[in-house]
Amino acid sequence: MANRHLSRSIVLQTLFEWDTLEEQGSRDIATHDMLHRNIDEFAPGSKDVPYMERLLQGVMDKRPELDMVIEKAAPEWPIHKIARVDRNILRIGLFELLFADRSEVPAKVAINEAIELGKNFGGETSGRFINGVLGAVYKELGEPGKEETGKPKAQKKEKKPLVPYDQMPIERKGGAVVFSRDGEDVYVALVHDVFGHWTLPKGGIEDGESVEEGIVREIKDEIGLSITLRDKLGENEYVASNPEKGKIRKHVTYYLAESSYIDLVLEEKGGLDDAQWFKLTNILDLNFYHDILPIVTKAINILASRQSGVVR
User: Fold this and answer.
1) From CA 113, how far away is CA 281, in angstroms rounded?
2) Which of 111, 121, 141, 180 is least buried, going by the fewest C-beta atoms within 10 A?
3) Within a domain: residue 277?
4) Three-state DSSP class for residue 248
């Protein structure tokens, strides 16, 4: 069975990207092309593409009605003041709550999935805010499906056995805190994703390639920098869902790396929308993912302790 949560996440990413471009005044935005680029990046081979296409098109077609419902359910929050991630999660949740086939997406599923998207991709209060708005609409609808207790056991599909963590396939990835010196100032190169976070450039390590070789190649491919690796900063790991392979452990190794201070060139890549240099003294004020922050902090400490010259 297709991973519907992953599918909704990809539609959310596409809507967020579209919303960003529209606010910047872009016209003739090809959301279909965005969607398929994101599918290729995050769910290659997915069998759930028709569902993602229907959901995206449905939200786009019903956006004026959805936004009107959001503003009625949260009158103190005009639609343009709601965080871009939150308002697109609300659009997805409301579309499924109001217009989807309830035999395919029960009302409670629509609400719970939207809340989970908020917890995964929004801010600290996103889940509660989304729950409040969708809960208000649910009550106005008369709480459809409130008495449902699920399908009879005989009709329930057998769940796939959980794969133990130590038996999940591992995908190797590598990234870097890339720094450069311009006079007396030290700068760090960061990339920005469509969910509003600054993060580190990274990518997959190919077969037959060392982690170090892969990092050098990926940084060049992603932001156009030739780098020299310095200190190893650490490793982290997270579990992701693949529609074909199931749960996968993504193991990421990070290095401190040095580069010339030249313009960054962000290659077109699903999920990223910007790349910039930031002064070392300013980067902790940026919005990082929690698992990236310790890596960045360690790099800052190393660079700050080497004030006298080139990192060795």
Assistant:
1) 39
2) 141
3) yes
4) strand
